[in-house]
Structures are given as structure tokens and as C-alpha cells.
Amino acid sequence: MNCFKQYLSTFALTLLAGAAAAQPSVVDLSFSDPWIRGSAPGQSNGAGYVVIENKASEPIALVSVTSDRAHRMELHTIVREGNVAKMQEVDRIEVPANGRVELKPGGFHIMFIGLTEPFVAGQEVPLQLNFEGEQTVRVDFAVKPPTHMGGRSHSH
After folding, report:
1. Which fold has domain 20-144?
2. pTM of the predicted model, to two decimals?
3. Of 29, 59, 71, 121, which residue has the fewest beta carbons closer than 10 angstroms?
4. What is the pLDDT of residues 68-78, one digit of tens each?
């Protein structure tokens, strides 16, 4: 009977190890072009953008963002109702398996609500991106001028 228990125990550990290996991990993610638009005078909110690429065979979701630069952080998207575009909070942003999601103006983005200080072009702002499974990664976002509309800079 003791051998049977040991077999079951080994079998269960093998199953758990396989399940853990199938879970997507932040090590499978890469982040490119992280940026925040600089604040205009009197502006109390801000937005951040980044391209997240997932090299894993399973999807993963961004579920929240943490920063000391705002009283509240939210994930948003833009929804269109007729000719009107409105921001809408979302619970998560899926990053597809072997795919990517682009947080950009007019789409998914990170909202800073109640800025603790204005964003000044040239600054770097560290954000903690929180993914499902209590996985986190720090990404430094570059603050661009208030007129910046996105896309990579081609100046050298």
C-alpha cells in the first residue's frame, strides 16, 4: 500500500508541475515603446501606452497598474457610440498567445486619475504592471511632449 501512495504522490506532483509549466509567465512578455503624454497646464489626469508582446503558447492578461504618480490607476479602452468616442474602464487587457496588444491613443490605455504631480517631457516614470496570477513587472515609461501622438520617434 505504501508503494501505491508514493506512486499517487509522484503522479500528483507530475501533474502539478505540468500545470505550472502551462501557465503563462511575465518572463514570456516583452514591452516596447512605453510612453506617457506630458501634462498640459492644469491637467489632473494622464494616459500611458505600451506594446506588450507574449511569446508564450497561452494568453495572459494585464489586470492592473500601480504607480505613485496618481491617486487611482485604471485600465481603459475607447468605445464608439454613434459619432461619439467614450472612455470605458475594463477589468483586464488580454495579451493573446504568441501575439501582442498595443496600448495606444484611441484604444486600450492606462489611465492616471488624480495626478500627484504633472508629467514633464523627458522624465522616466516607473510603473508596476500587474498580470493575472499575481505576476508583476516594472516598466519605465518615457514622458513625451503634450502634443505627442504616438509611434516611434525616428530622430537620432
Report:
1. Immunoglobulin-like (2.60.40)
2. 0.81
3. 71
4. 999 999 999 99
